[in-house]
What we know:
By secondary structure, the protein is of the alpha+beta class. About 20% of the residues lie in helices and about 25% in strands.
Amino acid sequence: MDPQATLTALRDFCAERLGPPLAARFVDLARPGFALTTAEPGEATGHSRFGGRAMLEPGTPWPTCEGFPLTLLAVLDADALAPWLGDLLPAGTGLLNFFSLDSDSEQCDPGAYELARTYGLEDPQMGKVIAARAAHAVETNAPARSSVFEPVAWTASPGFVLPDTWDSAWDTLDLGPEADYMAKAMPAQHLEGRLPDWSQRPGALDDEDIAFGRPEFPTASPAWLPPGEDPALYHHLLQLSGREDWYIGGDGGWMHWSIPTGALRAGDFSRAIPTPDIW
Protein backbone atom coordinates (compact mmCIF):
# COMPACT_ATOMS: atom_id res chain seq x y z
CA MET A 1 0.00 0.00 0.00
CA ASP A 2 1.01 3.61 -0.45
CA PRO A 3 0.90 5.98 2.56
CA GLN A 4 -2.52 7.46 1.82
CA ALA A 5 -4.13 4.08 1.18
CA THR A 6 -2.64 2.70 4.41
CA LEU A 7 -3.83 5.71 6.38
CA THR A 8 -7.33 5.32 4.93
CA ALA A 9 -7.35 1.63 5.86
CA LEU A 10 -6.22 2.50 9.40
CA ARG A 11 -9.00 5.09 9.69
CA ASP A 12 -11.58 2.56 8.48
CA PHE A 13 -10.26 -0.04 10.93
CA CYS A 14 -10.67 2.39 13.82
CA ALA A 15 -14.03 3.68 12.61
CA GLU A 16 -15.54 0.19 12.88
CA ARG A 17 -14.58 0.10 16.56
CA LEU A 18 -14.68 3.74 17.70
CA GLY A 19 -17.11 5.34 15.29
CA PRO A 20 -16.06 7.60 12.40
CA PRO A 21 -15.75 10.96 14.26
CA LEU A 22 -13.49 9.71 17.06
CA ALA A 23 -11.56 7.47 14.67
CA ALA A 24 -10.75 10.44 12.44
CA ARG A 25 -9.48 12.50 15.38
CA PHE A 26 -7.52 9.55 16.74
CA VAL A 27 -5.83 8.68 13.44
CA ASP A 28 -4.88 12.35 12.97
CA LEU A 29 -2.30 11.69 15.70
CA ALA A 30 -0.60 9.02 13.57
CA ARG A 31 2.75 9.86 12.02
CA PRO A 32 4.50 7.97 9.22
CA GLY A 33 7.51 5.97 10.31
CA PHE A 34 9.58 2.85 9.72
CA ALA A 35 10.41 -0.29 11.67
CA LEU A 36 14.15 -0.93 11.41
CA THR A 37 15.07 -4.60 11.31
CA THR A 38 18.20 -6.52 10.32
CA ALA A 39 18.21 -6.80 6.54
CA GLU A 40 18.54 -10.05 4.66
CA PRO A 41 21.22 -9.97 1.91
CA GLY A 42 20.12 -7.63 -0.87
CA GLU A 43 17.15 -6.23 1.10
CA ALA A 44 18.72 -3.23 2.84
CA THR A 45 16.87 0.07 2.49
CA GLY A 46 19.50 2.13 0.70
CA HIS A 47 22.43 2.88 3.01
CA SER A 48 20.38 2.58 6.23
CA ARG A 49 22.27 0.75 8.95
CA PHE A 50 23.38 0.61 12.54
CA GLY A 51 27.08 1.26 13.18
CA GLY A 52 29.86 1.14 10.64
CA ARG A 53 31.60 4.24 9.33
CA ALA A 54 29.98 7.63 8.93
CA MET A 55 28.80 8.72 5.47
CA LEU A 56 29.94 12.34 5.25
CA GLU A 57 30.74 14.80 2.52
CA PRO A 58 34.50 15.47 2.17
CA GLY A 59 35.61 18.25 4.48
CA THR A 60 32.76 17.78 6.98
CA PRO A 61 34.23 17.94 10.50
CA TRP A 62 33.59 15.03 12.84
CA PRO A 63 31.27 16.18 15.67
CA THR A 64 32.82 16.59 19.12
CA CYS A 65 32.05 17.81 22.61
CA GLU A 66 34.90 19.76 24.21
CA GLY A 67 37.13 18.20 21.57
CA PHE A 68 36.08 14.64 22.44
CA PRO A 69 34.73 12.81 19.36
CA LEU A 70 31.18 11.50 19.37
CA THR A 71 30.43 8.02 18.03
CA LEU A 72 28.54 7.21 14.83
CA LEU A 73 25.59 5.03 15.83
CA ALA A 74 23.41 4.93 12.74
CA VAL A 75 22.84 6.09 9.18
CA LEU A 76 19.38 6.60 7.66
CA ASP A 77 19.00 6.83 3.90
CA ALA A 78 16.47 9.67 3.87
CA ASP A 79 16.16 9.61 0.09
CA ALA A 80 15.00 5.98 0.23
CA LEU A 81 12.50 6.79 3.01
CA ALA A 82 11.19 10.05 1.55
CA PRO A 83 8.29 8.65 -0.55
CA TRP A 84 6.52 7.50 2.63
CA LEU A 85 7.10 10.80 4.46
CA GLY A 86 5.35 13.18 2.06
CA ASP A 87 6.55 16.77 2.41
CA LEU A 88 8.22 16.22 5.78
CA LEU A 89 11.73 16.20 4.24
CA PRO A 90 13.16 18.55 1.61
CA ALA A 91 14.07 16.88 -1.66
CA GLY A 92 17.61 15.50 -1.79
CA THR A 93 18.13 15.34 1.99
CA GLY A 94 20.45 12.41 1.40
CA LEU A 95 21.96 10.44 4.27
CA LEU A 96 21.43 11.24 7.95
CA ASN A 97 24.32 10.36 10.28
CA PHE A 98 23.39 9.98 13.95
CA PHE A 99 26.11 10.58 16.54
CA SER A 100 26.15 10.25 20.31
CA LEU A 101 28.74 10.01 23.06
CA ASP A 102 29.55 6.37 23.76
CA SER A 103 30.11 6.22 27.50
CA ASP A 104 28.76 2.73 28.28
CA SER A 105 29.84 0.12 25.74
CA GLU A 106 32.80 -2.19 26.31
CA GLN A 107 34.92 -0.27 23.80
CA CYS A 108 34.18 3.25 25.06
CA ASP A 109 37.11 5.52 25.88
CA PRO A 110 37.52 6.18 29.65
CA GLY A 111 37.31 9.91 29.04
CA ALA A 112 33.79 9.58 27.66
CA TYR A 113 32.42 8.49 31.04
CA GLU A 114 33.68 11.62 32.77
CA LEU A 115 32.27 13.80 30.01
CA ALA A 116 28.88 12.08 30.31
CA ARG A 117 28.87 12.72 34.06
CA THR A 118 29.56 16.39 33.43
CA TYR A 119 26.90 16.97 30.78
CA GLY A 120 24.41 14.09 30.84
CA LEU A 121 23.45 12.25 27.66
CA GLU A 122 20.42 14.50 27.19
CA ASP A 123 22.58 17.60 26.74
CA PRO A 124 22.33 18.94 23.15
CA GLN A 125 26.11 18.65 22.80
CA MET A 126 25.95 14.90 23.41
CA GLY A 127 24.15 14.02 20.18
CA LYS A 128 24.41 15.34 16.64
CA VAL A 129 22.75 14.60 13.31
CA ILE A 130 24.68 15.44 10.14
CA ALA A 131 23.14 15.23 6.68
CA ALA A 132 25.20 14.41 3.59
CA ARG A 133 24.10 14.52 -0.05
CA ALA A 134 24.07 10.94 -1.27
CA ALA A 135 26.03 11.68 -4.45
CA HIS A 136 28.84 13.30 -2.44
CA ALA A 137 28.95 11.19 0.74
CA VAL A 138 31.91 8.91 1.37
CA GLU A 139 32.64 6.44 4.15
CA THR A 140 34.65 8.33 6.75
CA ASN A 141 36.90 6.73 9.35
CA ALA A 142 36.23 7.62 12.96
CA PRO A 143 38.94 9.55 14.84
CA ALA A 144 40.82 8.11 17.78
CA ARG A 145 38.75 7.71 21.00
CA SER A 146 35.51 7.29 19.04
CA SER A 147 33.90 3.83 19.15
CA VAL A 148 33.19 1.93 15.93
CA PHE A 149 30.48 -0.75 15.90
CA GLU A 150 30.06 -3.54 13.39
CA PRO A 151 27.66 -2.39 10.67
CA VAL A 152 24.22 -4.00 10.56
CA ALA A 153 22.20 -3.17 7.45
CA TRP A 154 18.54 -2.30 8.02
CA THR A 155 15.34 -2.99 6.19
CA ALA A 156 12.98 -0.06 6.84
CA SER A 157 9.34 -1.25 6.79
CA PRO A 158 6.84 1.63 6.53
CA GLY A 159 3.76 2.19 8.66
CA PHE A 160 2.17 4.65 11.06
CA VAL A 161 2.96 5.32 14.71
CA LEU A 162 0.51 6.59 17.33
CA PRO A 163 1.70 8.36 20.50
CA ASP A 164 3.17 6.43 23.40
CA THR A 165 0.93 6.17 26.47
CA TRP A 166 2.67 9.08 28.19
CA ASP A 167 3.05 11.34 25.15
CA SER A 168 1.69 14.86 25.63
CA ALA A 169 0.05 14.56 22.19
CA TRP A 170 -2.88 12.87 23.94
CA ASP A 171 -3.76 16.22 25.51
CA THR A 172 -5.00 17.39 22.10
CA LEU A 173 -7.39 14.48 21.50
CA ASP A 174 -11.12 15.16 21.95
CA LEU A 175 -12.69 11.86 23.07
CA GLY A 176 -16.19 13.22 22.61
CA PRO A 177 -18.97 14.15 25.06
CA GLU A 178 -19.62 10.55 26.11
CA ALA A 179 -16.11 10.10 27.57
CA ASP A 180 -15.99 10.01 31.37
CA TYR A 181 -13.34 11.45 33.69
CA MET A 182 -11.16 8.32 33.72
CA ALA A 183 -11.18 8.10 29.92
CA LYS A 184 -10.07 11.72 29.64
CA ALA A 185 -7.40 11.21 32.31
CA MET A 186 -5.95 8.15 30.54
CA PRO A 187 -6.97 8.35 26.87
CA ALA A 188 -4.39 5.83 25.63
CA GLN A 189 -5.60 3.13 28.03
CA HIS A 190 -9.24 3.99 27.28
CA LEU A 191 -8.74 3.54 23.53
CA GLU A 192 -6.64 0.41 24.02
CA GLY A 193 -9.59 -1.14 25.82
CA ARG A 194 -11.83 -0.39 22.85
CA LEU A 195 -9.29 -1.75 20.33
CA PRO A 196 -8.47 -5.28 21.58
CA ASP A 197 -7.20 -6.29 18.14
CA TRP A 198 -4.94 -3.22 17.81
CA SER A 199 -1.95 -5.32 16.79
CA GLN A 200 -3.83 -6.30 13.62
CA ARG A 201 -4.30 -2.71 12.41
CA PRO A 202 -3.14 -1.62 8.95
CA GLY A 203 0.31 -0.03 8.98
CA ALA A 204 1.20 -1.43 12.40
CA LEU A 205 4.71 -0.63 13.67
CA ASP A 206 5.54 -2.24 17.00
CA ASP A 207 9.32 -2.65 16.75
CA GLU A 208 11.76 -1.14 19.23
CA ASP A 209 14.00 0.48 16.58
CA ILE A 210 11.99 3.16 14.77
CA ALA A 211 12.78 5.87 12.24
CA PHE A 212 10.56 8.97 12.26
CA GLY A 213 7.02 8.24 13.52
CA ARG A 214 6.81 8.84 17.27
CA PRO A 215 9.05 7.71 20.14
CA GLU A 216 8.24 5.13 22.79
CA PHE A 217 9.38 5.73 26.36
CA PRO A 218 9.56 2.58 28.54
CA THR A 219 10.17 4.65 31.70
CA ALA A 220 6.63 6.08 31.40
CA SER A 221 7.90 9.62 31.10
CA PRO A 222 7.54 12.03 28.17
CA ALA A 223 10.39 13.00 25.87
CA TRP A 224 13.14 15.06 27.46
CA LEU A 225 13.34 18.52 25.90
CA PRO A 226 15.21 21.68 26.92
CA PRO A 227 13.27 23.77 29.49
CA GLY A 228 10.48 25.79 27.95
CA GLU A 229 10.36 23.84 24.67
CA ASP A 230 6.94 22.77 23.38
CA PRO A 231 6.95 19.04 22.45
CA ALA A 232 4.18 19.68 19.92
CA LEU A 233 6.70 21.64 17.84
CA TYR A 234 9.17 18.73 17.64
CA HIS A 235 9.34 15.68 15.41
CA HIS A 236 10.91 12.33 16.18
CA LEU A 237 13.87 11.21 14.04
CA LEU A 238 15.24 7.93 15.38
CA GLN A 239 14.81 5.48 18.26
CA LEU A 240 17.48 2.89 19.12
CA SER A 241 16.66 0.36 21.81
CA GLY A 242 20.19 -0.92 22.36
CA ARG A 243 22.17 -3.92 21.17
CA GLU A 244 24.52 -6.51 22.59
CA ASP A 245 27.56 -4.36 21.75
CA TRP A 246 25.99 -0.93 22.39
CA TYR A 247 23.63 0.46 25.01
CA ILE A 248 23.18 3.61 27.10
CA GLY A 249 22.55 4.46 30.70
CA GLY A 250 24.41 1.77 32.59
CA ASP A 251 21.33 -0.19 33.69
CA GLY A 252 19.72 0.45 30.31
CA GLY A 253 18.00 2.97 28.11
CA TRP A 254 16.76 3.87 24.67
CA MET A 255 18.37 6.55 22.56
CA HIS A 256 16.23 9.06 20.67
CA TRP A 257 16.88 12.11 18.53
CA SER A 258 14.27 14.82 17.90
CA ILE A 259 14.17 18.04 15.91
CA PRO A 260 11.90 21.09 15.63
CA THR A 261 9.47 20.29 12.83
CA GLY A 262 10.22 23.59 11.09
CA ALA A 263 13.94 22.78 11.05
CA LEU A 264 13.21 19.29 9.71
CA ARG A 265 11.17 20.66 6.82
CA ALA A 266 13.96 23.16 6.08
CA GLY A 267 16.67 20.48 6.23
CA ASP A 268 18.45 22.16 9.17
CA PHE A 269 19.68 19.12 11.09
CA SER A 270 22.02 21.24 13.19
CA ARG A 271 18.97 21.77 15.44
CA ALA A 272 18.46 18.05 16.10
CA ILE A 273 18.96 17.09 19.76
CA PRO A 274 19.24 13.88 21.79
CA THR A 275 16.11 13.02 23.80
CA PRO A 276 17.12 9.74 25.51
CA ASP A 277 15.06 7.62 27.88
CA ILE A 278 17.29 6.13 30.58
CA TRP A 279 16.33 3.92 33.52
